[in-house]
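Record pair follows.
FIRST:
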Amino acid sequence: MGRMPSAKPASAAPFTPLDFQLVLLRRMADHNADLVEDARHTLGVSVAEMREANRRWQAMRHAPRSRGAVSRYRSILGDPESVTPRRIGDLSCEALLWPVPLWPDLRFEVLVAPGGVAWNEWLVRAPGAPGPELRSPADLTPWSCTVDEAARAFAPVRPLEGSAPTRWGLAFTAPDGPNGPTVPDGPTVPDSAPRDYVAEFTYGLLQRVAVTGPRR
């Protein structure tokens, strides 16, 4: 009796939209392990599968003959849900949007400059989907909002360089509100006194907020 053919190696299998969602989650696990664990169970995958998806993604990105980012996303996610002209300052570009089943109200957006170069890749609110009500820093809970939503709610903000290419930060000043965080042994001042914050994002989705100064 002939030998059965061996199973196709995982590295040779197609990289799927599910794998891409695992890559997003792997990057977010550093800040929100519990949320990532819940999402992983929702997707029905193991920790090993998440790590393998991330390993394969990095290998694709850094391969000597790696395809461009836009071609890579099209090969994994298919045709974008929409392609919209966008102007940001003096730059004319196109915004390509793909659905992300794990977050139905979000889309993965790639901004493509003339010549086909992708210069920004992150999660944004889906067109027509209601955004969160961000009235105070207490509303900035993990995964609650995107970079642009936080920037609008707490303007003026100062963009900060993240610790990795997929991470961003926003520095801003705002009143605490009644449920805001506190600084131990700080001076007694009204709860509504402003203080400085930094919000950290991974792939454009909020991960955590830190207080960077005492109440004023």
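SECOND:
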Amino acid sequence: MNGTRKWDTSKQHTLRYIAGPEDEDVKLRTILRQRLQVSRRLMTKLKFIEGGITVNGARLYMDAKLKPGDVVELRLPVETSETIEPQPMELDILYEDDYLLAVNKPAGIIVHPTLGHDRDTLANGVMYYWQQRGESYRFRPVHRLDEETSGVVVIAKNAYVHERISQQLQEHTVQKIYIAYVHGILERSSDVISAPIDRDPENPHIRIVTESGYPAVTAYEVLRTFAHASQVRLSLKTGRTHQIRVHMRWLGHPLIGDRMYALPEYDDEPYRALLPGQALHAQKIVLRHPIHDEDIQIEAPLPAELLRLQSMLEQGADSGR
């Protein structure tokens, strides 16, 4: 029999692990790091919290050896993002359980408050949502979307869950699928773009493809072609800032409505009234649930502005797939 793991929500947020035969004489530190995959940072934090880490209800040294049947408990404190002001906001909830919240973010809203912009963010709306339900969590998005990009944003409800998903992202085991509308007709119907990205030395807010940059890989598939544009499905293999926008511009097919990465040969003026920014939507994310240990798939439908854009492109289409 292997050791078993269970989350007990009745005691704040408590993760319980019952040692199995294979845990005989295994150190507590090893159980935490290897069996429960607790980071050193979180482990250190819990060591200084009363009852943060216990074995059979008692506090032990990290080098203490366990025996089968011992109960290891991690008690994460209830936290809140006190600096984020709760603010009423209509939220499109895609998924929620005791550990995760997934929201369909509209274009035109930033995920987290920034200097000089501490209201009207997704975080403000989520904090209000939790407040109205009598719940207290810290706002912990596991990934970000650009302000003008719509779609799935996943938020962890405690530090342990956040770290486990962050590890999946680092290991590139999270699948993130986007839908974009780009200028022009791509030469290939599908391909993998492997082109390193870094800041533009002349403008640090902009990213460029450069040999000295960080590895960046994007796979794409053309879903449909129109008269002068294409609908493309993209999958991120890495997570560089503005990666899709930079890679598509580098191919010579910038996203429709993308002012930052536009090319002079394409005219965005006909689409200005339809779009708040670039025509990019985070359609789907697939990840391993940190507690249930099973894959979950979260999808967000295309927003109204992209459906209107598609209709406009269809009216002028001369080819399709």
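COMMENT: The first helix runs from residue 28 to 35.
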